[in-house]
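Reviewer 2 asked us to include a model.

Predict the structure of this chain.
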Amino acid sequence: MTSTQYSDGRQETRVENYTKFWKKDLGKEGEADNQNRVESYTDVVNGYYDGATELYEYGWAQSFHFSRFYKGEAFVASLARHEHYLS
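Predicted model (structure tokens):
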């Protein structure tokens, strides 16, 4: 299976693989599952952060900052105003 690699280093398959480290029914998890996550911690961490980055970018574009909207203000304008304030 080929994986799309983004310019920022994220890979699509890492997000998919992240979910494989947990069972759907957490009550059925055992010590072997925990040990598997510990042994594969690099894959677990990379998958988590690739997924979190995708989610943030979906909601807030390239900005990791929340911004308030003024009535009638465009999304991009609110981000630009807030980033200017932060800088």
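The helical segments are 12-19, 31-39, 41-60, 75-86. The first helix runs from residue 12 to 19. We have added this to the supplementary material.
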